[in-house]
Amino acid sequence: MDTTDEPLDLYDIAVLLNYERATTEPRFRHTKLREVALPGTRPKTVAFKAPNEHEWIDNDCTWVVLDQVPDQSSDRDLFSDFLPEGKKPGGGISEQELETLFYQVRCHDGGYINIGLLQILFNMFPNDTKLKIRHAPKNKSPGESYITSVTKRVIIEEPFMYPKTSMAIAILPENQLLVSGNMPNFETAIMGFGALDDPSDEVKSYLDLSSMQFGDAGRGPGLNGKQLFALDTTAEHQSRVMRTMGGNDPEKTPKTSGAIRGTPYDDWLTEVATRVKKKWDNRHEEHWCGHCGSPDATSKCAGCGQAWYCGKDHQKVAWGFHRGYCNKA
Ligand SMILES: [Zn+2]
Ligand SMILES: [Zn+2]
Question: Which residues does the UniProt record annotate as the domain MYND-type (predicted)?
């Protein structure tokens, strides 16, 4: 099949990038969940001070305590590896909350890592590569979708004040503590896209591959999405900001740029992007789950025969987006 004219699909690419990145994140390789302390509670197994005891801002802090386990020689850390064997981490935490934590940890402070990843991936395609952008459907109306080019992208660095949540991740046995959202200022880096024929370069779509750092408020696409990244229209982006931040930083203005310099993670990100490109190029032969990106996708959408899932659960959570495109060319 000649597929050279098919545009790159930003939604599909985001699902693949999310899987390849999350399951190989160097900062969290071979870690298992030991304990979760939801806002208002403190972990019992570590003795770190709470963020607000450091005179940091007093917002909702989720603690996650991880155990670094000896190298298991697996090439990936899957969600199923994240849970401690034989026991639940307590606190009546649901399966979906555990999934949120798995990705919340891996998206920790991840704005620039993800911008670096997207940049490396897009640079692997020729400049005249078409890009299809699909937004989530709203109520009865279909989602907005359009074709643009991979070059119609911009990096947006947005300064905000008072993030509504913070996250403290303790990694044992080395007692490493990673905290984000604890300062009054918070800057995000996300990628924006515009229409092909618009000389004003107005941003119409906002992709944040690290939106899960805000927990469930980071799920998308669209504001009621259940998936693992944000792909928002301008209105959705503004509402998401209101959900996660106290407001814009009046002292600073957003910055846009065409490219960022490399990150310390570029070797790893290049491997991630290379695997994603290979899967994309091979998309008609091998499928992946339209929610989690797992290659173990055996369940096909009966409506269109075009979407695949690792099982009924992920088919269900992806339906809020897919219903807008099922049976559509
Ligand atoms: Zn799945
Ligand atoms: Zn379908």
Answer: 289-326
Residue 235 pLDDT greater than 90, yes or no = yes
The CA 224 to ligand 2 mean position distance, Å, reads 19
Give CA–CA dist 197/220, Å, rounded: 27
Q: How far is the CA of 305 from the centre of ligand 1 (A)?
A: 16
**Does the interface predicted TM-score (ipTM) exceed 0.85?**
yes
pLDDT in tens, 265-275: 999 999 999 99
- Arithmetic mean of pLDDT, 124-144: 93
Q: How far is Cα 210 from Cα 17, in angstroms, rounded to an integer? A: 11
**Domains of the chain, residue spans:** 8-286, 287-329
Neighbours of 75 (CB within 10 A): 7
Residue 15 Cα, ligand 1 centroid: separation in angstroms?
Answer: 10
313: three-class secondary structure by DSSP: helix
Q: Determine how many CB atoms are found less than 10 A away from the CB of residue 282.
A: 10
**Non-local CB neighbours of 218 within 8 Å, separated by 6+ positions:** 104, 107, 208, 210, 211, 212, 229, 230, 240, 244
